[in-house]
Structures are given as structure tokens and as C-alpha cells.
Amino acid sequence: MSDLLAFVFLGLGLGAVYAALGLGLVLTYRGSGVLNFAAGASAAYVAYAYLALREEGQLFVGFMIPLTPEGMRLGVPSALTISVLLAAALGLVQYFLVYRRLRDVGPLARVVASSGVLLVLQAAVILQFGAELQNLQPVLTERPVHALGVAVPADRLILAAIVIAIAFALWALFRFTRFGLATRAAAEKRTGAQLIGLSSTRIEATNWVLSSVLGGIVGILVAPMTTLLPDVYTLMIVPALGAAVLAGFRSFWLAVLGGFGIAISQSLLTYAETQSWYPTANGIPLPGIKAALPFFVIAVVLFARGRRMPDRLTVAAPKLPAAPRPSAVRVRMMISAAIAIGALSLLDFGWRQATINTMIGAIVCLSLIVVTGYIGQLTFESITLGGVAAFVAARLSEDWGIGTPIGPLLGVLIATVVGVLVAIPAIRIRGMQLAVVTLAGAVAVQEVWFRHPNWGGGLQPARAPAPELFGIPFGATDSFWAGDGQVPEPGFGLVVLAVLLFVSILVVNLRRSPSGMRMLAIRSNESAAIGAGVNVARAKLQAFALAGFLGGIAGVLYAYSFGAIGPERFSAITAVSFLAVAYLGGITTVTGAVIAALGVTQGVMFHLTTSVFGIPSEYYMLAGGLGVVTAVLAEPEGAAGVFRHQWDRGRARFAGRSAKRAAARLAR
Amino acid sequence: MSRVTSGPPRSSRPRRRTLRAALAAPLLAAALFVAACGEEKADSSTAADAAPAATSTTATGAGGTASGPLGDAARLAAAYVGGTPGRADASLKPVKIGFINTQGGVEDDPDATATAQAAVDLVNEQLGGIEGHPLELETCFVVNAAEDNQACAQRFAADDDVAVVQIGMGSALDPIYTTLRGRRAILGGLAIEPSSLVAPAVFYTPGAARTGTTMAQFAKDRLDARKVAFVYGGDERGVQALAPAFEDLGMTYTAASMGEEGAQLNAALVATKAKDADAIVFLGSGATCAQLEKTKTSLGIDTPVIGTDLCASREVAEALGDYPRWNFIYQSANYNDPSNPEVAAVQAAMEEYQSGVPYSLIFPFGNTLALAKIFNELGVDALTFENVERALRAFEGPVFAGPQRLACGSLAAEGQPALCSPTAIVSSYVGDDVWEDNTP
């Protein structure tokens, strides 16, 4: 028993980090309805700024501003004060430049924007400091404290106490002050709050400042306990989200309890890993359990609490752009196919690969269009299901000798089944809660399944030997009669094109079918759909199954394209990125999926940019982040929406001129 | 603070590679769609251009000696590479080495490029190039793993002037192997991924499995270890690769994760009973190494530590005031030990050609000189895929500032046909800048 208590004690330090980040997430969500994926990146930015002040007396604002002569170091109090002010400014800048302008659009646009902000902050840090570890001198004492038979550096315990004190202060602030009351009122109904004279802008901005300052302080205090790296806190966003979800994005105390609970559980698992009864795989403790723990906690709690969870997390359906009925499908597909065939057969290897990457990316985006664009479920599981198909196909091939086409088809089938399993919680959990649970699920599947030595790849990636059908190989490196001998050969690209056309027709037909109409009805208003006799559960199962099917196909194609593919390809960050790119392209139409996929890694847009403009690699992340933020601010409906509006306006103008001419003729 | 800082050349700059490099697993190969890298044509190295255009070779003739600012270092390298000392003739067609490296993103190893480039500059400035032809490092940088690796490989596969592809640091390398199979010979850097062990490439450095054998033998022979505590980062696969070697020698082990950033280091030390173990095998890097040393001290743990060379870094030394007195396993050579004349030569070349930037990856320098040696032996007109591939595999070493003996394919029975070096080295820091070779 004392051993267990000791490990509870040892988990307090990390718990403080999760709890603090969770508190920040609660603040921004409660204050402005933003699920801030950039919270960790903001904390890291402030920690780096503090480092620059302490080491060189310079203020880091994306570039360095010297504050002291000859790079003299600043002392802890000065550096800490300036860093806190900088954190406050960072919160204000984020709010006024990005989130305030997005407060009337759906939560999905804000999620996408926050992923762009994440990239910008991370890129700014990497450009200035590089990706190497930085040595930040501790602010708190590290002297060991002995208790329960173990020693713990004092800074962990002090930090835990600080976070609990902050939670108390926040609770008191929101419970007893006019500001807290105003925030709660605005969170319930912003327009109502404005009617009674409350400034929602001031309320939201103040919450952003509080959140940013809290994250910054914790970032500075925690960095010496862990390591200071550009993405160090970004990786902690999943357990922090877990804490925030457990708190229903409302309760500060529950967020703190959740954060400490997850970290203490992980500490106890560290102890358990060394016990003989703990399950092992190839002689090592079963991998991934600690990383997957937040998912298990979130999934169980949310599923148990289900509809009783409050607020706009579940009540507000994600506001999504219109999903117009596809028109002129044959013409569009023929034109697209002709362009793709031309690129594959006439252009050089670089453009061929860019076209292939774009086409596979389009299939991932189609998966998101079905599950998010059509039925309105915010999920991150599409790319994960691609991994499921790839690893199942790899295992079938290596362990059972089952190759193409049976192996990959079975892989896609399993991905479809897993997609259906994801739909089961989606019947009870919805909105941003589903987004969070599937994000944590992506981490869990990656860690527990893909990295497992027997179930997934273990030490190996998912291998995909060159595919063949009827003895004819058609892999990326297999020679093709019309090829130029360079890799990739056009044959593989043509197969990918055929698959893309097939699944596009599938999605188009779904949109036109009664099933598609039912999905849109659910997206529009789930309660009304139920009232109209729509079987919501069945429709969700259909949508998630199709999304799994499409994601699985994409995963298998990725594996064939690369020859082998590792678990990291199907990470949670990749899932967030794909949701962002799908949203920017237009998440409700097939055309949007294709436009979105132009911007995937090494896709057509990417190849064009790098070959024509030659942007140095270190600026890609910054340019990408700025691009995401700019695009979502400029057109929250995505690029496809812009094209559609332009097209509609052009048609209207043409129709208007025709009508005028007809009227003039009649008048004559 | 800045990306490239000045500092003593002997020191190393810790990298994000951490466990990923040492233990075989990339953890975060995020494919942020917009944040990826493509072909890095703009950054292509032009070592050939760096050589003065009008100065044709002034070789002193066969058997002549290299001279210039590098002195002994150049003479040592010239003796190794062979050929005719002097400057390469910039007017001749360059011999290209395709060089793929992670650079510019969350994972960032610019020192791999820097050391390879220093070797190329040395060859062109003082070692006569390759039969007078300048050597050129054609770089392609990888920000995001799979797509970028594939793009780099496709670019080099399409360039008939690229005689060989060298890999610096990297992860998710399979697209490179798949694309270049049968098209270009590949000389790998560190065999950090299991798939690299069986790749159609050769690696002049030992892999994780061989590192495990050396670690285990050292623990048994020099520390008389029976119980070992494995403390590792976020990736269990490092332990999976290394631990069997300890069991094979009759040792028992307990393993626990400290979390990727070392947040659970205390819990891991307590859980593995590190205080009572005969050795701590630490699979971390950079700041977590400093954390371990400080925690050991504060908790009164005096168990000897076996760590990777990632812990013998400048940041660790700065954080602690000196290198920790641990036993470090090195893949090729102890780059902190200037008493090794070849390591000193690398330091001199880095000072001369790379302004003394800190570095920790020494193998690209050695591998590049090995390529120059092989090219000189083959002759410029014989640098076909088949010839280069055959010569790479037949090369028996030594590698400059690296393994002294190579036997490519000799580890095939152990499932590692791509590896050529059967040994890693153990170097123990005893304080006052003194290192002891403790290779078992």
C-alpha cells in the first residue's frame, strides 16, 4: 500500500502540468467557445521567451528585441514579469486577430484556426531557437522532499500547490465576481449577455489573457522538470483535453482533478510495469498503455455520462457550410480524370508523385466529408482507420502470405468494422466531445495497436509488397508500358485514379440518395430528424462505416505508395491536419475534397510552391500555419465555397443579362 | 540560443533524435500537411562551386603530401583517401553524392550535413577531389518523413549524375529504400530503424542490436552486473531492441518509462529499484540526461550508468558543469576525445570549413571520406550503380574516425544484412577531460 501511495505522490508533478493546461482549455472554451489546440504551443512559446530573457536579455516576439546592453542576462523576477506580460499580449493577439473574427462561425472553423496558430507558434520557436533541447534554469527549488519512502524534487510539489491555488482563485473569480457572472452568462447566451449591457469582447479577451498567462507560467515552471522543446507541450494536449472533457469544459475543480488523476494513474502504471503480473509483449511491458490512458478515461466517462453532459459542447451542432446536391458530375469527373491522366502520363516524376499524393489525400478527405460534412460528426478517426487497414494488410501478407487483392480488401473491411465500432459511442457522444474522444482514440490505437509487436508492426512498419493483379504488378516502382523509367511509374497513379473515381461516385451517390438526405437532416437538427422518423443510429452507423471504408482504402494506398508505412504516419497530429485541410478545401462536397488534397504534404500545390518559388524547408511550417489561419479567416466555408459562390454569381449575372436582353427584345 | 551557435568543436549538440535515433523509433513524424518539406533544390550544396574556379589542380603528384591550414589533419585524410593531394579542378564535371537528411523541422539534424560538407570541402580543397573532379554534396532535406523521403529518393533516382545516395539522419526511410532499389547504391548513416537492418543499403555503423550486445558485454565484464534497471523515454521499442542481449548474458532487468520528456523520471527510478541495481541503462538524451544525473545525486544513487553518446553533449556538460561520469556507447567514435588523431582531424576540418559549428554526428564525415576513397579506387568513369554497390559492400574499412573493420553482410545470420560494423565502442568519462576506452 505504501508503494502505491508513493507513486501517487510521484505523479503530482506531471499532474500539475495536465491540470494547468486543462484549466487553460476550460477558460478559453468557457470564455469564447474555442477548443484551443494551440494551448500547449502557446505555453512553449512563453517558456522560450523566458529563456531568451534569462540568457540574452532579449524579448522574443517572433524575432529578438534586445532589452539589455551587450546581451546581459535578466534576473528571474524581471524575466518572469516580462514573460507574464508577453503571455497576456499573446492571448490578446490570438483573440483579436483570429478568434474574435471567428466567433460567429462554427466550432470546426475555430478548431482549424487553432491548428494554424499552433503551427505558427511552433515554427516561430524553431526558426529562432532550432529544435535542439534548451537548458532552462529552474525557478523553483529542486531540493528533494522525502515522504512515503521516496524522494521527490520539491518543485513538483510546489507546482502542484500553485496549480491548486490557481484553480481555487479561478473558482472564486467565476463564482463571486461580476466578471465571473458575466462570463457564465455570455457562455450560456452571448446575445442575451450583450442585451443586458455586457461586453462579450471584453469578457472573451480577458479569458484569453487568463488562459495564456496560466499556460505561460506553467510552461516556464515546468520546462526544467521535463525538457524544453518546441513541441513539448503540444504533445501534452491530449491528456489536458482529457482533463477538460472530464470537467465538461466548465468546472475548474474537475479539470484539476482530471489532470492529477490521469497523471497519477500513469505514475501507478509505471510501478505496475515492473510487476510480474503486468502484461508484456516480447519481453517488455505492453507498450502504449500509459499514452492510451487518457482515451480510456475519457471514453468511459463520456459514454457513462452521455447525454447528461451539458452545454454547447453537445447542444450546438457544428455549424457547417451548405452541402449542395452535386451537379454536372459526369462532366466534372471527366475533366478531372483527363487532367490527372495528363499529369500522370505527360509530366515528370515530381508531378506524377504530387498527383498521386493529392489523389490519396482526396480519399482521406472524402472520408471526412461523409462523417463530418454530411452527418455533422466531428471526428478524427479517418486517418487512424487508414492505419488499421494498412497494418492488417501487412500482417496478412507477412504472417499468412495473403497478398493483393485479398489482403488489402480484408484490411479495408476491418477498417470499416472499426469505423462502425466508433459509431457506437457517437450515438451517445456528439459535437466537440466526440472530436476529443476520437482524437484521444487516435493516440490509443497508434500506441496500443500499431506499435504492438504482434497486433501491429512492433519494431517494423506496415510493409506493402508491390501490388499485383492476375500476375501483373502495378506498384509505384514497377515498369509501365507508357512510362519514362522514372519512379513513380504512371501505372500506379492510374490505379489510384481509378480508385478515386470509384469512391467519388460512391460519395456523390450517397449525397443524392435518401440515406444522404437523412444524414443531412441529422446534421441540421438531430432532434428534428428523430421527430421526422429518421433512424439516427442507423444513419450514423452507415456514415461511420463508409468513412472507415474510405479511410482504409487511403491507408492501403499510402502503404503501397511508400512501400512501407510506420505508425507515426497515422498520428493524432496528422488527423488534426487532415481535418484542417479538408475543412479549408470545403468539407461538404467532393469538389472540396479534391481542392483540399491539392494542399497535402508533397501534393500538387506543394510541389508547385516548392519547385516554382523554392521556399526553404525551415519556412514551410510558418507559411503553412499562416496559410491555414488566413484561409479560415478569409473564407470559413472553404475554398470550394468560394468557387461555388463565384460560379453562382456568374450564372446569376448571365441569367440577368439574358433576361434583360429578352425584355428589350419584347419591348421592341 | 540561435540555430547555429559557436562553441568548442569537440562538443556535441543534442538533437531531437533522442530515443528515436538511439533506439530505433520516430515518435512524432507528424504529417502536418502544410508543414512539410519538398525537394530542397535551392539549398543544394555546391561544394564544387566553392572551389576556386580558375585554380586547376596543383597536385604534388602521386605520393605527394597535402598541405594548407589543416596540416596534419589533411595529411591524415589524404593518406586515407588516396588519390592525388591538391585542389580539385572546378572545371571538371563534379561527382555527386545525394545526401538526404532531416533538417528544418521539429526533427532537425543540421550537423549531419555540416560534417558531410566539411569532408567534401576537405576532399576538394586538399585531397584532389576524385581524380581531379570535384566532389559535390547534393542535399535534400526532410521535414516530414515519408513523403519527403520519397521525393528526395525520386529526385536522386532521376539524376544520372548522382553516383551514390548517402543518408544522414532520418526516420521512415522505407520510401528511400523502395524507390532506390536497383537504381542507386545507398550508404546509410545510423541504422536506427529496424527496417534499415534489412534494407538494400549498407551501413558502416553498428545497429541497435549490436549496440545492445556491446552494452550487455560491458555491463557483465566491467561492472559485474546481474540486475539492470532500464529507464527509457516514451518509446518501449528501444528496450525491446537492447534488452535481449542482457538476458542472453544471464542478467535480469526491470524496465520502466520516464515519459518522453522525462516527466516521470523519479517514478521510473523508484519503480525499477535503480538504487539497488548493478547498472542503470539510460535511454534518454539531452536534458533528461542532466536530470538523471542531478536526480541520482540528490537521491544518493551511486549505481553506474550506461548511456548513449547523446548524453555526452555540450548542453549536458553545461547543465552539470562537466560531462557526467558515465559509460557512453558510441556508434562510431568518441567525438569528445581529441586524443584520437582522426577525431582531431574532423575537428580541424569543421573549424576550417564549417566555422566550428557544434556537432555530434561524426559518421557523415567518415562515410563521405570512405566514399571518396572508394571512388578513387574505382575511377570516375566506373561509377555505375553496379560498381559502386559492389564496392560499398566489399569495402573492409577502416572508416575515417569510425569503425576500423567492416564486414558487410556478416551479420545476415542475425537478421541484419545491411550492417557492416560488428562493434560499437564504450568510452567512460572519468573527469578532467579524460576518457577511457572500455570497449569489451
UniProtKB/TrEMBL annotation, chain A:
Where is this chain primarily localised? membrane
Q: Where are the transmembrane segments?
A: 6-27, 34-53, 73-99, 111-131, 157-174, 208-226, 284-304, 329-347, 353-371, 402-424, 431-450, 491-510, 543-560, 572-598
Keyword Cell membrane listed? The answer is: yes
Enumerate the InterPro entries for this protein: ABC_transp_permease, BCAA_transport_permease, LivM-like
Q: What keywords would UniProt list here?
A: Amino-acid transport, Cell membrane, Membrane, Transmembrane, Transmembrane helix, Transport
Q: Which Pfam family is an annotated match for this chain, by its short name?
A: BPD_transp_2
Q: How does it sit in the membrane?
A: Multi-pass membrane protein
Q: Which family does it belong to?
A: Belongs to the binding-protein-dependent transport system permease family. LivHM subfamily.
Return the protein name: ABC transporter permease
Query: Organism source for this protein?
Result: Conexibacter stalactiti
Q: What is the lineage of its organism?
A: Bacteria, Bacillati, Actinomycetota, Thermoleophilia, Solirubrobacterales
TrEMBL record, chain B:
Which residue ranges does UniProt annotate as crossing the membrane?
A: none
Please report the stretch or stretches of sequence annotated as the Leucine-binding protein domain: 94-403
State the species of origin. Conexibacter stalactiti
Q: Does the keyword GTP-binding apply?
A: no
**Name of this protein:** ABC transporter substrate-binding protein
**Cross-referenced InterPro entries:** Leu-bd, Peripla_BP_I
Tell me the segments the record calls region Disordered: 45-66
- Which keywords annotate this record? Signal
Q: Where is the composition biased (Low complexity)?
A: 45-60
Q: Where is the signal peptide?
A: 1-36
Q: Which SUPFAM superfamilies match?
A: Periplasmic binding protein-like I (SSF53822)
Family, as annotated: Belongs to the leucine-binding protein family.
Can the keyword Signal be found in this entry's annotation?
yes
